[in-house]
């Protein structure tokens, strides 16, 4: 990230992180999701949604290391 420009000079990752790609055909859906995530997470917590995402894509994880 720091190689992407001066505005990222203070960028740093937290101790743990995930990075995901998005199919270009789904960019608009992702933008809409981000714009409405506050409302969305009133119905389903981020933690529950993230666990479902990991399960859907068969990503192995250890619950002890998901949350700070």
TrEMBL record:
Protein name in UniProt: Transposase
Annotated organism of origin: Mariniradius saccharolyticus AK6
InterPro entries in UniProt: Transposase_17_sf
GO function term, MF aspect, one: transposase activity
GO biological process terms held by the UniProt record: DNA transposition
């Amino acid at each position: 990230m720091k190689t992407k420009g001066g505005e990222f000079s203070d960028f740093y990752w937290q101790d743990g992180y995930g990075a995901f790609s998005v199919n270009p055909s789904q960019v608009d859906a992702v933008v809409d999701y981000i714009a409405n995530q506050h409302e969305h997470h009133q119905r389903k917590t981020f933690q529950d949604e993230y666990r479902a995402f990991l399960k859907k894509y068969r990503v192995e994880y250890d619950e002890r290391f998901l949350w700070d």
